[in-house]
Structure formats: C-alpha cells, structure tokens
Amino acid sequence: MPELAKENSKAGLEAFIGYWYATYSYAIETGDLAAWEKITDTTIPVAVAHEKSVNLNHIDGRWMAGGRLTTPVIEVAWDDSESTTYSARVQVIQEAIQYFDAGGAKGQEDSAATNTADAVFAKYLGNAWKVTDYGTIVG
Questions:
Q1: Are 62 and 106 in contact (CB under 8 A)?
Q2: Contacts of 134 (CB under 8 A, 6+ apart)
Q3: CA–CA distance, 136 with 118 (Å, rounded to integer)
Q4: C-alpha distances in angstroms, 9 versus 39, 49, 78, 87?
C-alpha cells in the first residue's frame, strides 16, 4: 500500500481508493482476494457478490484474460468536521474480459469493456482506511 494511502487526509483517501481498486483488479485477474479482503467490509452484500464472482471465475482451474480496472477520476467529498465516513465518486474503467476453462477452451461469453461511475464509502479506523460500502451510481 502506498504510504500516502495510510494517511487520514483527503489525499490519503484518494490514494487509498486507488489502491483499493488495484487490489480488486488483482483479485479479478488472479483469483487472489487476500489484499482486497483486508481493506473491505466483506459482510456487505455487494462485497459478498464480488467475492463470489471472483471465486467462481477461478474455480476448477478456470481463468480470465483482461478485466483490468483503472480509476482515472477519484473525487473525494472531504469534510474537516471529524466525519467518520467519507464518500467518493470514482470513474471505473474495466477492460473487456475473456473467460477460459482449465484446458484453455473458451468458457462463458466474453464481457465487454465498461466505463462506470461508482460511489465508495470509507472509514478511517485506528490507523487505516477500510471500505464500508460501494456500488455503481445509476442514473
């Protein structure tokens, strides 16, 4: 994790959110959710669904090509009034994904590239940030 992402500041939260998406991108690409789980409230429904999806896409030797996430815009709503939960709007671009079975045969239908806006909510707990909720902004 970048040092800046450990700071309880607007810049720290921006860096943390970028890092959080990088850990999820790594999970999508590899099936390894460990880093993402450490910094996410994995009890919320959206996190449960994402964890299940990653696990299903890597079960029995399945694998994926593509799917990398980038976050070109992160806009944190920062309030110095000692708020405990902060929010951000994030532009999330995901590369197209190809799915393969263990032997290399094409699996499920490919997923197209996407460009969405997410809302991310995070708390600074003790000495580290944790994502407490997130989801796609609709409409």
A1: no
A2: 46, 47, 118, 119, 120, 121
A3: 4
A4: 17, 30, 8, 13
Q: Classify strands 114-125 and 85-94 as parallel, antiparallel or unpaired.
A: antiparallel
Note the pTM of the prediction, 2 decimals: 0.94
The single-letter DSSP state of residue 111 is B
**Cα 106 from Cα 103, distance rounded (Å):** 9
Q: Which amino acid is at 92?
A: V
Closest CA to 40 of 135, 123, 131, 133: 131
Element (H, E) at 57: helix 45-57
Say how many CA atoms lie within 13 Å of 54 toward its Cβ.
Answer: 21
pLDDT in tens, 89-113: 999 999 999 999 999 999 889 999 9
Q: Which residues contact 101 (CB under 8 A, 6 or more apart)?
A: 61, 62, 107
